[in-house]
Amino acid sequence: MSTAPVTVVGIGADGWPGLAPGSRAALREAEVVIGGPRQLELLPEDCTGERVAWPSPLRPAVPGLLAAHAGRRVCVLASGDPMFFGIGRTLVDVLGDAAGLRVLPHPSSVSYACARLGWPLDDTEVVSLVGRPLSSLVAALHPGRRLLVLSAGAGTPAEVAALLAARGFGPSRLTLLEQLGGPRERRVEGPAEGWPHPPGDALNVLAVECRAADGTPRLPLTPGLPDESFEHDGQLTKRHVRAVTLATLAPAPGELLWDVGGGSGSIGVEWMRAHRSCRAVAVERDPVRAGRIARNAEALGVPALRVVTGAAPAALAGLPTPDAVFVGGGLTAPGLLEACWEALPAGGRLVANTVTLESEALLTGWYRRHGGELTRLAVARAVPVGGFTGWRQAMPVTQWSVTKPRGPVAEPVQPVDPVQGELQP
Ligand SMILES: C[S@@+](CC[C@H](N)C(=O)[O-])C[C@H]1O[C@@H](n2cnc3c(N)ncnc32)[C@H](O)[C@@H]1O
After folding, report:
1. H or E element: which one contains 290?
2. Ligand 1, atom nearest to 242 Cα
3. Separation of CA 346 and ligand 1 centre (Å)
4. Where is the Tetrapyrrole methylase domain (predicted)?
């Protein structure tokens, strides 16, 4: 790999005239300049370095290109701020760290957008739809919030407008900002519902002021979405138990969950909604339910949830190592709990829920051997009883939760006799 530092130069729609003196000097001194064809055309003739256009797809070509020019003064051109949804991230990944990189940023498209709109960037949600499904936007829709959407192309604004209208956010105000910072900068506005503008320039950012239509369901940030938020056939961890289950699973940014026996996918979906970097794999043996999990993930803004159709434990083979495992179905399948426990790294969490006595007996055995917490969750709801009101009790859920020990194995939990005190094992 290259030993000389690679200089990454951010360049905007204003091209060469908009570059800072340091960026111009780096480009003039470069022996090789790598960039997109459109970016390379922005350079003047006195940038005499060899010009190399990125091939498509770009990512797999990066290591080879850097190796081919090792030891030369290399500049890589990036659009706007190289470290913001840009080539800078790819280069750090490929080089292993930032030590061999010198990054000279230019204002990003979102800096320009906030400057034009008078929006504080620190209080504006940014969603990139470049290489990501449109439905990723859904998790960011909250009344009163401001979003900047990085478009994938000229067609994105109309697609976003249609999605907003379909999801009850038709009254939202949209501002389309094209070619920000360049001589062809253009701005048009309109409501999401009935968005009136034909496709324009492919280089655009869409600003969204979220406004919900009357009756649009609220989708809050905390786990425990209303049961009606999910398409389901009854195989759904209900709201109150789901909220407790997510709290016990305790998602943190970047973590991966296995949702084993995914049912409708509600646990995996709410895990992923906890933070945009959270990932989940739902394993479901029933193909109809597996399809439903994918639809729920899409509808609730986490289309990256991975669905594996197959019966655990066999279907768990080869999955990436989880940070937490939830078992919502299949507890009595031979070897299932063993496979989940085996896959979990030290410090990983396992939570299993059941309503059957057979599975409860199994969980009690695991609780004795590995410790953790055994909890019984009994939720009752008030319902009409004739002209009065009474409690309707849902089936109680037994929950075992445990953190896999990092050091020596935990002392087994001794069964306790309420009269005699501690029993002998
Ligand atoms: C009670 S539901 C889980 C509900 C789910 N947590 C939710 O909120 O939608 C249990 C699910 O586990 C699935 N299941 C049972 N045994 C399984 C196995 N061995 N492998 C994969 N899925 C299994 C069933 O098909 C069912 O959909």
Report:
1. helix 287-299
2. 8
3. 25
4. 6-193
